[in-house]
Amino acid sequence: MGVKRAVEIVEKAAAENSSITILHQIVHNPSVVSHLEYQGVTSVEGIENVQTQTVVFSAHGVSPQVRDEAKKRGLTSLDATCPLVLKVHGIVKSFALRGYEFIYVGHRGHPEPLGVMGWAPGKVILIEDKNEVKSLRVANPDKIVVVTQTTLSLLDTRVTIDAILVKYPKAKVFNTICFETTDRQEALLELIPQVDLVIVVGGKNSSNSQRLSDIARKKGKGGYLVENVSQLQNSWFNKVSRVGLTSGASTPDYETEIVRQEIEKY
Q1: What is the pLDDT of residue 41?
Q2: pLDDT for residue 13
Q3: Which domains are present in the chain?
Q4: pLDDT exceeds 80 at position 2
Q5: Which of 28, 49, 195, 254 is deepest in the core (most CB within 10 A)?
């Protein structure tokens, strides 16, 4: 839902105004990005690099500081932030006003946590996995909120959150993993016992696509992440009789279908 909504916002804006810029890639999928570039839409990192009058905030969301800077520059802003990401922003904003600190489970360098952390500067601790829980230090163990990047693996996140709750049993935990990514992960877990190999179609910089291939590898099924059909390798299919196919939440259906048709030739 969030992906389709974001792309529709950009396509409509591009049809009405040929001079727009997206702050960060609209979604982490090269096919979608190329499609929009063909329509004359560019993507940049950093609000200071926007050279057009109109800027679109990507599906990953931005911090309030970025929104303020866009206003100061006199830019027209279009918000394509995923509704679930906006929900996380609301949680952080609300509890920050009540004096809470936050433990955010996510990936450093990803645009989504950067936007979330801006709602409570200096009050959000980002960790990537359970190994970082031991070194956590908070001012008040009784006032902690735990939220997660929406695109994470349900299995990995559960382990990390369990470790947080052992250390801080009074922490308030919000399940903010996208239902779309959760559904795909659960479906893949059902599929894995039935196949010899798993192919995931998605962007290399797509967090939820990476989690799908991680799950397959952890289950011993050699999960390969490909962005398009050209990245399939013949050697993967040697001595393989059944192939499982899935895709990231931001992968267009037609891209997955092209890969499916190619796999059937092996």
Answers
A1: 85
A2: 85
A3: 2-81 (3.40.50.11270), 84-173 (3.40.1010.20), 179-263 (3.40.1010.20)
A4: no
A5: 28
Mean pLDDT, range 12-17, rounded to an integer: 83
**257 is known as an active-site residue:** no
Q: How far apart are CA 42 and CA 78, in angstroms?
A: 14
d(CA 97, CA 120): 9
What is the average per-residue pLDDT within 165-189? 91
User: What distances in angstroms separate CA 126 from CA 84, 106, 132, 137, 147, one per listed residue?
Assistant: 19, 7, 9, 12, 10
Under a CB-based contact definition with an 8 Å cutoff, are residues 99 and 63 in contact? no
Token couple for 85: 């990401």
What strand order describes the sheet that includes 243-247? Answer: 224-226, 197-201, 243-247
Residue at token pair 């950009």: 10
Length of the chain: 266
Q: Is the pLDDT score of 68 beyond 90? A: yes
pLDDT in tens, 241-261: 999 999 998 888 888 999 999
**Burial of 176 by CB count in 10 Å (0-12 exposed, 13-18 middle, 19+ buried)?**
buried
Max CA separation in the chain (angstroms): 60
3-state DSSP percent of the chain in helix, strand and coil, to 5: 45, 15, 40
Report the candidate in 183, 158, 26 with the shortest Cα–Cα distance to residue 105. 158
Beta bridge partner(s), residue 124: 102
Taking alpha carbons only, the member of 203, 206, 196 closest to residue 226 is 203
Structure pTM? 0.79
Q: Where are the alpha helices (DSSP H) in 17-146?
A: 30-38, 64-72, 83-96, 111-117
Token duo for residue 215: 């799950």
Measured CA to CA, the distance from residue 240 to residue 76 in angstroms comes to: 53
